[in-house]
Amino acid sequence: MSGLVLRAWLRDWRRRPLQRVLTLVGVIIGVAVVLAVDLANQSAQRAFDRSMDEVAGAATHQVLGPASGFDEAFYRDLRMAGWRDTAPIVEGPARLPDGTTVYVLGVDPLAEGPFRGAASDIGDAPVQRLVTEPGTILPPAGWFRASGEAHGARLALDAAGGEREVTLIDRAAERDEDPSDAGGDGASEDAGAALWVTDIATAQVLLDRLGRLDRIDVRLADHEVEALVDGLPAELELVAVESRGQAARQLAQAFRINLTAMSLLALLIAAFLIYNTQTFAVLRRREVIASLRLVGVGRRAIFGVVLLEALLVGVIGTLLGALLGVALAQVLVAQVAQTVTDHFFAVAVTGVTPRPLALAAVLLLGVGLSLAAALAPAWEAARVASPAGTGRGGLERRARGWAAWLALASIVLVLAGVGLIVTGAGALVGGFVALFLLIAGFVLLLPWVLAWTLRGLAVLVRGAALPRIAVRSLERSLSRSAPATSALTLALAAAIGVAVMVGSFRGSVEQWLGQALTSDLYVVPAAPASARGGARLPEDWTADLVARSGAVSVSSGTSQEVVSDRGLVDLYVVRPHADWLDYLPLLEAAVPLEALGARLAADDAVLVTEPFAAHHDVGLGDRLSLAAAGGRRAFEILGIYRDYGNPQGTVLMTQAAFVRGGVSADGVGSFGLRLPDGADAEQAVEHLEAWLAAQDHAALVTRPGDIEQESMAIFDRTFAITHLLRVITLVVAFIAILGALIALQMERAREFATLRSLGLLPGGVRGLVVLQGGVLGVFAALAAIPLGLGMGWLLIEVINREAFGWGMDLRLPWAEVGETVLLGVGAALLASVIPAWRMARMRLVPALREVP
Asked: What are the tens digits of pLDDT across the range 340-394?
């Protein structure tokens, strides 16, 4: 009996393959997007973790000093004092000729064995050439295969010390090994592909650290920590390794959660497609179901065969989607890795390695969602017991009844989502749960709203026969039209929500850059942007810069990582223009603006950025213990300002407050020059460049527009993957509404045949079908506007604040909203072309014989 049921049920696969193909395509794309984002996220995460771990090695603590480094003689003194498990480090980013950012790690190979030997093969590497030949460097083995560079070749590296040539050493070639056997598995290779190892003397030249170290790695037992701290000079701090990079890890995780949530939307829309297809399949086979019931087939068998069909769709679609997902991940991983490099730490990932656990998880997700989407159609097929009970009329009456109950359920879901937002429960994950509850509530409300909208339209077009027929047909087929409309609404709303969030973010960043870049010219170290934080220019250049440019005001700013009671924090020391507070986007201040500048210069006081206040839970009047010149001091927070330059947050301190301990600042990160009104900026640039060319420190002159362009390029790279996911989601929604319209028109074939018999021409049939597609598209587009705007507000005010601490001004991009509405209507009209063509060419006699 089971074989008979299965053969009878699956015969429809051969008769109507298009429906199955559309369903499979929807599942394939949904699963592929989820798997691709997961693989890209995991590959970038492994690269990030491995790079951070290789940089730290087996050290338990690190001795840190000023951003410009500290005297290397202290390392000698430390060894002489008996601290043998120590290793000096000089580190920083550099740029390859192709623009790729890598991380240079300068080590003492003879001291590295206990620290990074197992992690990066430094202890087993051919270190003789690193020590004896200046300018040699050890890239990862995987980089040689990816780049095609040869062992012993010369390559130009651009770092804080300027552009210098280095000699490349290939571990495998140095040991006479087969290059394909070096480096272990691909995942490990790719993960460390941004870490380039060299001797500490070479690194000091490359990174402009002659005679200085960035840190000293130390291995300590718990009882040894206090003894070492007591022996450190005032300008040095001992920091536990796990505290470094923790904030960056958390922010990178928040970025990955955002991508994962976006990818799940595509799979959710695919679930609508599966539901629609399975429900239509049940209706098309109502005679088969009735016949099977009459010959004794039980309800369980009918229920099981519908689920079995969904299982086949889910398994086939998930397996094909997994193959596509692995290929798509190769595209996405570069974008994810670049974003991590731009904002957190230099990583390089040249490929992805599918993990069995990730494949198993996406298999369960794809198959499970397919089965869940088919539960309602399977139950509907099993509950009918006679040919009379299998008609469309009974199903549509039940669908209209369910619409009212779903509307009530939507109110409950919306209230639950609002409750999560108001209480702030669950932090970032709670924000996403609230978002999905609100989306689910809105989507469940749509069938009820659609039903009443179609009834209202039927009244409005009472005098026009064909439009009334089109609208009433849609209203009588609510079980078909509602899921398709919901899928399209969800996709369009996601597009609008992302447009609101990205548009608001972009506008806020551009406004912030306009406020922050208050100088006419900037003099910065000639190094990659990622390396400029540690590069320094002589502070005594101020007078010469004024003389060459004619500037009326000079500011300077220096970024450095310092120890605080909140862990390692980014400190920005500024010697500002006189009116700098007039341009600073201050959100809160403990004192009036007129007194703030004097307090910041005369007292131990600082300003913090909005992300810093959010991540560290500090506010006005709180005190931060910071390692400034002369040792640790407590600084009062006098204000919070908006800043998008560092997602981890920044503490801003005036130079006067920083050097109050009696120690002068150690170099300057950049100079800002204000020219007199009407001055010739081009002539000032020429004079400055001519003078800089004769200086020992490499520097360049840049304009605010160049800095803004570079910043916005990073912004666009960050959101490129989001736009790609939005396009993929719209493609899945298009497939969903195409399948629904085909199902709807095939289901109403007898009605169209009757109209043709009464004299309606094929062009009239085509117009009728296109009109139905247009009505659904317009409804979906209009319904998507409030949902999309609400999603955008939640992304800005809840999720982004929880994830990154950024606040931004809500901007409504009406142009993008209009484009999305037109896209939705156009997609629905385009999707109606195929069913319109088929209905106009159908054979009338077989269609008229169809049992309603």
From this structure: 555 555 555 556 677 787 788 888 888 887 888 778 777 877 775 444 444 555 6
User: What are 698-720's pLDDT values in tens digits?
Assistant: 788 888 888 788 777 777 766 76
Q: Shortest CA distance to 373 belongs to which of 729, 26, 835, 747? A: 26
The whole-angstrom separation of Cα 654 and Cα 731 is 52
Instruction: Give the mean model confidence (pLDDT) for residues 475-485.
Output: 77
Cα–Cα dist 783/790, whole Å: 12
Most confident of the ranges 463-467, 636-640, 663-667 = 636-640
**Cβ proximity of 732 and 266 under 8 Å:** yes
Q: What are phi and psi of 808, to 5 degrees?
A: -150, 155
Instruction: Write the DSSP string, 91-145.
Output: EEEEE-TTS-EEEEEEE-GGG-HHHHHHHHSTTTS-HHHHHHSTTEEE--HHHHH
Cβ 772 vs Cβ 580: under 8 Å? no
34, 246, 594 from 597: Cα distances, Å:
50, 33, 7
Please tell me the number of Cα atoms within 13 Å of 4 on its side-chain side: 10
* Low-confidence winner among 114-118, 275-279, 578-582, 780-784 (lowest mean pLDDT): 114-118
Cite the DSSP H helix spans in 295-391: 299-343, 356-383
The most confident of 38-42, 341-345, 499-503, 595-599, by mean pLDDT: 595-599
Cβ atoms 510, 643 nearer than 8 A? no
pLDDT at residue 82 greater than cutoff 70: yes
Residues 448 and 406: their CA atoms lie apart, in Å, by 8
Residue 565 per-residue DSSP state: B
- Of residues 733, 722, 748, the one with CA closest to residue 780: 733
Three-state secondary-structure class, residue 668: strand
Chain-centre distance of CA 691, in angstroms? 43
- Judged by average pLDDT, the poorest of 470-479, 529-538, 652-661 is 529-538
DSSP for 233-274?
Answer: -TT-EEEEGGGTTHHHHHHHHHHHHHHHHHHHHHHHHHHHHH
User: Could you tell me the pLDDT band of residue 248, with boundaries at 50, 70 and 90?
Assistant: low
Residue 725 sits at φ, ψ, to 5 deg, of -65, -35
DSSP, collapsed to helix, strand or coil, labels residue 320 as: helix
d(CA 571, CA 568) in angstroms, rounded, equals 9
The separation between CA 132 and the C-alpha centre of its own chain, rounded to angstroms, equals 44
Q: Which long-range contacts (CB under 8 A, 24 or more apart) does 432-436 make?
A: 432/257, 432/261, 432/799, 434/794, 434/798, 435/261, 435/791, 435/794, 435/795, 435/798, 435/799, 436/261
User: In whole angstroms, what separates CA 548 from the centre of its chain?
Assistant: 44
Amino acid found at 330: Q
Do residues 618 and 608 touch, judged by C-beta distance below 8 A?
yes
- What is the rounded distance in angstroms from the CA atom of residue 828 to the CA atom of residue 733? 10
Q: How far out from the chain centre does Cα 445 lie?
A: 30
Burial (Cβ within 10 Å: 0-12, 13-18, ≥19) of residue 842: middle
In sequence order, the 6+-apart residues with CB closer than 8 A to the CB of 476 are 396
| 574-608 per-residue burial string, b: 16 or more CB within 10 A, e: under 16 | bbbbeebbeebbbeebbeeeeebbebbeeebbbbb
345: its two tokens:
């730490």
Say what the pLDDT of residue 628 is.
74
The two tokens of residue 167 are 């000699």
